Amino acid sequence: MSAPVMFSAAALGKAATGKPSPIKLGLASYTYRNFSRVQMMGYMKQLDVSGLNAKDVKDHLPTDATQEMQAIADYTAAGIKLHAAGAIYFLKDEDNDIRAKFEYCKRAGVAVIVAGDPTPASLPRVEKFVKEYDIRIAIHNHGPEDKLWQSPLDILKLVKNMDPRIGCCIDVGHTERAGTDVVEAIHEVGPRLFNVHMKDLADLKAKESQVAVGEGKMPVRAIFEALIANKYAGFVDLEYEIHADDPMPGVTSSFAYMRGVLAGMGYAIHP
Asked: Fewer CB within 10 A of the terminal residue: the chain, N end or C end?
């Protein structure tokens, strides 16, 4: 594993001039699943990224209440803001199980739960807790391997008449692999889009072809343009799933590319 390296603002692709970017770039903590919370916070400082979508992996956001509160205190001290938690899997259509997950996210102060594989039958029960806790549910699509939610459009079909706080987390890679145009999906999902997982693929049909953002075929600029056109207010969270033991080179170049795209669109990027 390579040693941590400090990167300048220029190396990270920041623009010095321009209007503030309407796209907020964040990080999915799963990217650093092989690293501790302290290590991840150090990397985030190097990257000038302060928005975190945290998952119960390593010690990033433990489900134990005491440990979770310590994690939150650590993030607060480091200037890191949790905006989402997940993916959290809703595999039981039971009040106690669902409530425990909402309580976990309430303690963390997050506005969005990125939800994995809730069954269609459980959605009315999940909706009940959405109303009680006023926390949005963003169902994550997982591509052609997923038996339930391959595409964001599969999600939209079932939630479009439910509480407006139930919607989608669009994973751009899984969306393309499911045969859905990701830009069109962003427009169709519209106000029910609460989170975006960003990645890139050398082959838009092959899961194993993931590369750093900017090195593949993902239409990053068109994605940003669609999000801006729809006045998307959530985060675009980098989820870099390869090179788990040494992710920083790919993560760094991914943020540099995304910031460069935004700079090319006339936006100034600030941490």
From this structure: N
